[in-house]
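Give me C-alpha coordinates for this 186-residue protein.
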Amino acid sequence: MEAIFLVLIGAMLFSQAWHMMGLYSDGRTVGVVIGSLGLLSLVALTLDPMLLTGSGNKTISAANHLSEITVMKGLIAVWAVYGVVVAAQSLWDMEERAVAFFSAAAAAMSIVAFFYFAGNMEGRYGESAWLGLSAATLVLSVSSAMVFFALGFTFRTLRPVAAWFLLLGGGVVAAIGLAIATRGIA
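Here you go.
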Protein backbone atom coordinates (compact mmCIF):
# COMPACT_ATOMS: atom_id res chain seq x y z
CA MET A 1 0.00 0.00 0.00
CA GLU A 2 2.64 2.53 1.04
CA ALA A 3 5.08 1.71 -1.74
CA ILE A 4 2.53 1.93 -4.56
CA PHE A 5 1.15 5.19 -3.20
CA LEU A 6 4.54 6.84 -2.80
CA VAL A 7 5.71 5.83 -6.28
CA LEU A 8 2.50 7.07 -7.93
CA ILE A 9 2.42 10.34 -5.99
CA GLY A 10 6.11 10.90 -6.70
CA ALA A 11 5.40 10.48 -10.42
CA MET A 12 2.42 12.83 -10.09
CA LEU A 13 4.55 15.52 -8.44
CA PHE A 14 7.23 15.07 -11.09
CA SER A 15 4.66 15.52 -13.85
CA GLN A 16 3.12 18.57 -12.18
CA ALA A 17 6.61 20.10 -11.93
CA TRP A 18 7.02 19.80 -15.69
CA HIS A 19 3.70 21.59 -16.13
CA MET A 20 4.66 24.37 -13.74
CA MET A 21 7.95 24.83 -15.61
CA GLY A 22 6.07 25.15 -18.89
CA LEU A 23 7.56 22.01 -20.47
CA TYR A 24 4.22 20.50 -21.49
CA SER A 25 3.00 22.04 -24.71
CA ASP A 26 -0.63 21.35 -23.85
CA GLY A 27 -2.37 21.37 -20.47
CA ARG A 28 -4.46 18.36 -21.44
CA THR A 29 -1.35 16.19 -21.38
CA VAL A 30 -0.68 16.90 -17.74
CA GLY A 31 -4.39 16.44 -17.04
CA VAL A 32 -4.41 12.95 -18.47
CA VAL A 33 -1.14 11.93 -16.82
CA ILE A 34 -1.87 13.33 -13.36
CA GLY A 35 -5.52 12.26 -13.44
CA SER A 36 -4.60 8.68 -14.26
CA LEU A 37 -1.90 8.63 -11.57
CA GLY A 38 -4.33 10.10 -9.03
CA LEU A 39 -6.98 7.51 -9.84
CA LEU A 40 -4.41 4.71 -9.82
CA SER A 41 -3.32 5.76 -6.34
CA LEU A 42 -6.82 4.89 -5.13
CA VAL A 43 -5.91 1.27 -5.84
CA ALA A 44 -3.46 1.52 -2.95
CA LEU A 45 -6.43 1.79 -0.58
CA THR A 46 -7.38 -1.80 -1.35
CA LEU A 47 -3.90 -3.28 -0.87
CA ASP A 48 -2.39 -4.66 2.31
CA PRO A 49 0.31 -2.56 3.98
CA MET A 50 3.90 -3.46 3.20
CA LEU A 51 5.56 -1.48 5.96
CA LEU A 52 2.84 -0.88 8.56
CA THR A 53 2.07 -4.53 9.13
CA GLY A 54 1.98 -4.50 12.93
CA SER A 55 3.40 -8.02 13.02
CA GLY A 56 6.59 -8.99 14.76
CA ASN A 57 6.43 -6.14 17.25
CA LYS A 58 4.82 -6.62 20.62
CA THR A 59 4.66 -2.89 21.44
CA ILE A 60 1.96 -2.26 18.84
CA SER A 61 -1.60 -2.68 20.00
CA ALA A 62 -4.48 -3.24 17.61
CA ALA A 63 -5.67 0.33 18.15
CA ASN A 64 -2.23 1.75 17.31
CA HIS A 65 -2.02 -0.38 14.20
CA LEU A 66 -5.49 0.73 13.10
CA SER A 67 -4.59 4.38 13.65
CA GLU A 68 -1.44 4.00 11.53
CA ILE A 69 -3.42 2.46 8.69
CA THR A 70 -6.13 5.14 9.00
CA VAL A 71 -3.60 7.96 8.76
CA MET A 72 -1.98 6.37 5.71
CA LYS A 73 -5.33 5.77 4.00
CA GLY A 74 -6.40 9.35 4.72
CA LEU A 75 -3.17 10.57 3.15
CA ILE A 76 -3.78 8.40 0.10
CA ALA A 77 -7.36 9.67 -0.29
CA VAL A 78 -6.41 13.34 0.01
CA TRP A 79 -3.59 13.05 -2.51
CA ALA A 80 -5.80 11.10 -4.93
CA VAL A 81 -8.39 13.90 -4.78
CA TYR A 82 -5.59 16.41 -5.30
CA GLY A 83 -4.50 14.52 -8.42
CA VAL A 84 -8.05 14.55 -9.79
CA VAL A 85 -8.36 18.31 -9.10
CA VAL A 86 -5.07 19.06 -10.87
CA ALA A 87 -6.25 16.90 -13.78
CA ALA A 88 -9.60 18.68 -14.00
CA GLN A 89 -7.93 22.09 -13.89
CA SER A 90 -5.52 21.10 -16.64
CA LEU A 91 -8.06 19.35 -18.86
CA TRP A 92 -10.58 22.18 -18.82
CA ASP A 93 -8.03 25.00 -18.50
CA MET A 94 -9.55 26.52 -15.39
CA GLU A 95 -8.00 28.95 -12.92
CA GLU A 96 -4.90 27.66 -11.14
CA ARG A 97 -5.99 29.05 -7.78
CA ALA A 98 -8.34 26.08 -7.35
CA VAL A 99 -5.31 23.81 -7.39
CA ALA A 100 -3.69 26.04 -4.80
CA PHE A 101 -6.50 25.68 -2.32
CA PHE A 102 -6.70 21.92 -2.78
CA SER A 103 -2.95 21.81 -2.23
CA ALA A 104 -3.58 23.53 1.11
CA ALA A 105 -5.79 20.59 2.11
CA ALA A 106 -3.11 18.17 0.94
CA ALA A 107 -0.52 20.12 2.94
CA ALA A 108 -2.66 19.98 6.07
CA MET A 109 -3.16 16.22 5.83
CA SER A 110 0.51 15.67 5.01
CA ILE A 111 1.59 17.71 8.04
CA VAL A 112 -0.76 15.69 10.27
CA ALA A 113 0.68 12.47 8.84
CA PHE A 114 4.23 13.78 9.30
CA PHE A 115 3.66 14.60 12.96
CA TYR A 116 1.95 11.25 13.51
CA PHE A 117 4.68 9.17 11.88
CA ALA A 118 7.56 11.22 13.28
CA GLY A 119 6.13 11.22 16.80
CA ASN A 120 4.58 7.79 17.11
CA MET A 121 6.49 5.37 14.88
CA GLU A 122 9.96 5.63 16.37
CA GLY A 123 10.91 2.33 17.92
CA ARG A 124 7.93 0.41 16.54
CA TYR A 125 9.19 -0.74 13.16
CA GLY A 126 12.81 0.33 13.15
CA GLU A 127 14.70 3.43 12.22
CA SER A 128 14.48 2.99 8.45
CA ALA A 129 10.68 2.69 8.43
CA TRP A 130 10.27 5.64 10.77
CA LEU A 131 12.68 7.80 8.80
CA GLY A 132 11.29 6.78 5.40
CA LEU A 133 7.66 7.58 6.13
CA SER A 134 8.55 10.73 8.06
CA ALA A 135 10.74 12.01 5.23
CA ALA A 136 8.15 11.20 2.57
CA THR A 137 5.35 12.99 4.41
CA LEU A 138 7.63 15.96 5.14
CA VAL A 139 8.48 16.30 1.45
CA LEU A 140 4.79 16.01 0.54
CA SER A 141 3.79 18.67 3.05
CA VAL A 142 6.48 21.15 2.01
CA SER A 143 5.84 20.65 -1.70
CA SER A 144 2.09 21.11 -1.39
CA ALA A 145 2.58 24.18 0.80
CA MET A 146 4.91 25.66 -1.83
CA VAL A 147 2.30 25.01 -4.53
CA PHE A 148 -0.28 26.73 -2.36
CA PHE A 149 1.79 29.88 -2.04
CA ALA A 150 3.05 29.85 -5.63
CA LEU A 151 -0.35 29.39 -7.28
CA GLY A 152 -2.69 30.82 -4.67
CA PHE A 153 -1.03 34.18 -4.27
CA THR A 154 0.70 34.18 -7.68
CA PHE A 155 4.20 34.89 -6.43
CA ARG A 156 6.09 34.88 -9.72
CA THR A 157 9.43 34.22 -8.12
CA LEU A 158 8.13 31.30 -6.08
CA ARG A 159 6.67 29.42 -9.07
CA PRO A 160 10.02 28.15 -10.45
CA VAL A 161 11.23 27.36 -6.93
CA ALA A 162 8.06 25.35 -6.26
CA ALA A 163 8.41 23.63 -9.63
CA TRP A 164 11.99 22.58 -8.93
CA PHE A 165 11.06 21.41 -5.46
CA LEU A 166 8.19 19.36 -6.94
CA LEU A 167 10.61 17.88 -9.47
CA LEU A 168 13.22 16.88 -6.90
CA GLY A 169 10.70 16.09 -4.16
CA GLY A 170 8.73 13.83 -6.48
CA GLY A 171 11.91 11.90 -7.19
CA VAL A 172 12.67 11.57 -3.48
CA VAL A 173 9.15 10.38 -2.66
CA ALA A 174 9.22 7.86 -5.53
CA ALA A 175 12.66 6.63 -4.41
CA ILE A 176 11.35 6.08 -0.88
CA GLY A 177 8.40 4.16 -2.34
CA LEU A 178 10.74 2.02 -4.42
CA ALA A 179 12.91 1.36 -1.37
CA ILE A 180 9.83 0.16 0.51
CA ALA A 181 8.77 -2.02 -2.43
CA THR A 182 12.19 -3.66 -2.73
CA ARG A 183 12.44 -4.10 1.05
CA GLY A 184 15.31 -1.64 1.30
CA ILE A 185 13.19 -0.03 3.99
CA ALA A 186 11.67 -2.71 6.16
